Amino acid sequence: MAESASQPHFGAPDDAGGGREGEITRRQFLTYTLMGTGGFMASMLLVPPLRMAVDPLLKAGEEKPFVPVADVNEITDEPKRFEFTLKINDAWVKNQATTYSAWVYKEGSEIVALSPICKHLGCTVNWNASPEHPNMFYCPCHGGLYTKDGINVPGTPPRAPLDLYEVKVEGGKLYLGPLIQRT
Amino acid sequence: MQRIYNWLDERLDLSPIWRDIADHEVPEHVNPAHHFSAFVYCFGGLTFFTIVIQILSGMFLTMYYTPDIVNAYNSVKYLQTEVAFGYIVRGMHHWGASVVIVMMFLHMLRVFFTGAYKKPREMNWVVGVLIFAVVLGLGFTGYLLPWDNKAYFATKVGLEIAETVPIVGPYVKSFLAGGDIVGAATLARFFAIHVFFLPGLLLLLLAIHFILIRRQGISGPL
Amino acid sequence: MAGERQDKASVKYVGDSRIPVRREKRLPKPYSEYPGKTEPFFPNFLLKEWMAAVVFLVGFMALVISHPAPLEPHAADPNDTTYTPMPDWYFLFLYQLLKYIPGSMIVLGTVIIPGIFSLLLLLAPWLDRSPERRPSRRPVATALMLFVVASIVVLTYQAVASHKAQQAEAAAATPPPPPPPAAEGAAFDPEQAFIASCASCHGQDLKGTPAAPSLVGLNLSVDEVVDIITNGRKGSMGVMPPGMFQGTDEQKKQLAEWVLSHQ
């Protein structure tokens, strides 16, 4: 406020008759002190609220735990969709049950679990959903395509492969953990 | 900067407004640098300053606060305990509310005891009393928002008191409560009144207060 | 001011209704009527004001950081009957005022007295019309304001004191919830029972509090009072829950007699 408002004084001396150089310097000095004081007050008042407002950016995300999703013998070579729920803390809404899903199949002896979230704009992809593109993941929103291992098909909107879940097998059960991003 | 200012000034005629604010002479009897006792003339300015703090911290608090009986308390608690600096911003708003009342009361006493409300400044005194009422209303409505027992029961008692007013009392109570009990509707209403209606009114009254001060000048020394 | 900029002269909206060609300059109001020096608002005076504001702000932020705003450990529980309501401190004097006013005349405390003083405040410029400004030469206005300020201070102080006393009482009363177990054998003291079970709402002097009405001048029989103690009652100020006093029927009767004997 003080900055823009003080402008007319720099160019236009107030007393047209007087060549009182000292007065102008003093006035400018006062103006700068005023701006400093104002800046100090503004920073004192704005730093806590701004720090509070950007807190979500600086907070470390919660580590996702491994959760049991399916029996290993349910998993075949064909991708199959499994749903699982996870209790997450959404700010002050604690332990909110949220449903996630994964496309899971066997590649030889290894189990692959893909996130169904399209890397284009976050729609949900489906296996074998488009008759023109068999044996591919297809996103209905903008026609994004991924091969069976989740790699995006060049020429379609997505620009990265589908995320992978960390996979763990214990006691015949499949556990899924945090997501791994691929480029 | 100078050129931008000139361009705007040519079209909007800003200079007279700015000159009026910047160049008006302030007499020494209100200037604490001349007589320390003149600090009593600071209370009005400090009231305004605290109101600025209230508006600023309040705006940021609504980024987290949720006016809903299930989430209100939890969101305040989250903001207070889990958000970095959240307790400071809430503290600014909480203590600021008390400081505004104190400063405004001192300002009112200063104006009263220096007889500054006398002719020609009667209107501005009335505006000031209205500002006082609006700020008390802000205090009352804001007290409910954290939705803890203190807030809930104080509001309940406050509404019971409103109900005792002859004739209109029960209607005032139902209007403020938004129903028969202090509950979900009351909280939503108090939030709306606290965040939109009263601050709007307050800003309007403050603008009138300041314009009148510039029109009428500061009252002379005793 | 004398140095009018040249470019200003070049733009003239002659015959244009939007901006007049040139009007008289709005010069700052002169303060020549006051003795002593003056100084311009910007930047000289504003700097001093802002320095005062910095001192204030530093103190304020120190308060904010050292004293976090209070928040109770639980969300509001409308069914909590033990909670003693307390308004924010700046309404305490009004709250306390109600304690001195009998329930039947509550309008006096909620509307009439605060209304009269608010109106006096609002209309002060028209009630105190003499041009004299010194407080010492306006004895009525000064005395009235000092009286109001003193009353507010005293009432607020009393409200805080009585709230603290109530809380201490509640804290003392809660640990042994069913009054004294020893009371079975020992002599039953209705006064102690009243203080433990009833006084937090009805007041130690039986004259009532904002939570519950006065018990002075009841037009009830002993049996009716026993019935209220046992089953509660929906009264003018709210609901008295049943079973506030747990005791034998004989003890309830003694308590009722004690209450009715204090008129």
TrEMBL record, chain B:
<feature type="transmembrane region" description="Helical">
    <location>
        <begin position="125"/>
        <end position="145"/>
    </location>
</feature>
<dbReference type="GO" id="GO:0046872">
    <property type="term" value="F:metal ion binding"/>
</dbReference>
<keyword id="KW-0472">Membrane</keyword>
<feature type="transmembrane region" description="Helical">
    <location>
        <begin position="95"/>
        <end position="113"/>
    </location>
</feature>
<keyword id="KW-1003">Cell membrane</keyword>
<keyword id="KW-0249">Electron transport</keyword>
<dbReference type="GO" id="GO:0005886">
    <property type="term" value="C:plasma membrane"/>
</dbReference>
<dbReference type="Pfam" id="PF00033">
    <property type="entry name" value="Cytochrome_B"/>
</dbReference>
<comment type="subunit">
    <text>The main subunits of the menaquinol:cytochrome c complex are a Rieske-type iron-sulfur protein (QcrA), a cytochrome b (QcrB) and a cytochrome c (QcrC).</text>
</comment>
<dbReference type="InterPro" id="IPR016174">
    <property type="entry name" value="Di-haem_cyt_TM"/>
</dbReference>
<keyword id="KW-0408">Iron</keyword>
<feature type="transmembrane region" description="Helical">
    <location>
        <begin position="38"/>
        <end position="65"/>
    </location>
</feature>
<keyword id="KW-1133">Transmembrane helix</keyword>
<comment type="function">
    <text>Component of the menaquinol:cytochrome c reductase complex.</text>
</comment>
<dbReference type="GO" id="GO:0016491">
    <property type="term" value="F:oxidoreductase activity"/>
</dbReference>
<keyword id="KW-0813">Transport</keyword>
<keyword id="KW-0349">Heme</keyword>
<keyword id="KW-0479">Metal-binding</keyword>
<dbReference type="InterPro" id="IPR027387">
    <property type="entry name" value="Cytb/b6-like_sf"/>
</dbReference>
<keyword id="KW-0812">Transmembrane</keyword>
<dbReference type="InterPro" id="IPR005797">
    <property type="entry name" value="Cyt_b/b6_N"/>
</dbReference>
<dbReference type="GO" id="GO:0022904">
    <property type="term" value="P:respiratory electron transport chain"/>
</dbReference>
UniProtKB/TrEMBL annotation, chain C:
<feature type="transmembrane region" description="Helical">
    <location>
        <begin position="139"/>
        <end position="160"/>
    </location>
</feature>
<keyword id="KW-0472">Membrane</keyword>
<dbReference type="Pfam" id="PF13442">
    <property type="entry name" value="Cytochrome_CBB3"/>
</dbReference>
<dbReference type="InterPro" id="IPR027387">
    <property type="entry name" value="Cytb/b6-like_sf"/>
</dbReference>
<dbReference type="GO" id="GO:0016020">
    <property type="term" value="C:membrane"/>
</dbReference>
<dbReference type="GO" id="GO:0009055">
    <property type="term" value="F:electron transfer activity"/>
</dbReference>
<dbReference type="InterPro" id="IPR009056">
    <property type="entry name" value="Cyt_c-like_dom"/>
</dbReference>
<keyword id="KW-0812">Transmembrane</keyword>
<keyword id="KW-0813">Transport</keyword>
<dbReference type="GO" id="GO:0016491">
    <property type="term" value="F:oxidoreductase activity"/>
</dbReference>
<feature type="transmembrane region" description="Helical">
    <location>
        <begin position="50"/>
        <end position="69"/>
    </location>
</feature>
<feature type="transmembrane region" description="Helical">
    <location>
        <begin position="100"/>
        <end position="127"/>
    </location>
</feature>
<keyword id="KW-0479">Metal-binding</keyword>
<keyword id="KW-0349">Heme</keyword>
<dbReference type="InterPro" id="IPR036909">
    <property type="entry name" value="Cyt_c-like_dom_sf"/>
</dbReference>
<dbReference type="InterPro" id="IPR051811">
    <property type="entry name" value="Cytochrome_c550/c551-like"/>
</dbReference>
<keyword id="KW-0408">Iron</keyword>
<dbReference type="GO" id="GO:0020037">
    <property type="term" value="F:heme binding"/>
</dbReference>
<keyword id="KW-1133">Transmembrane helix</keyword>
<dbReference type="InterPro" id="IPR036150">
    <property type="entry name" value="Cyt_b/b6_C_sf"/>
</dbReference>
<dbReference type="Pfam" id="PF00032">
    <property type="entry name" value="Cytochrom_B_C"/>
</dbReference>
<dbReference type="GO" id="GO:0046872">
    <property type="term" value="F:metal ion binding"/>
</dbReference>
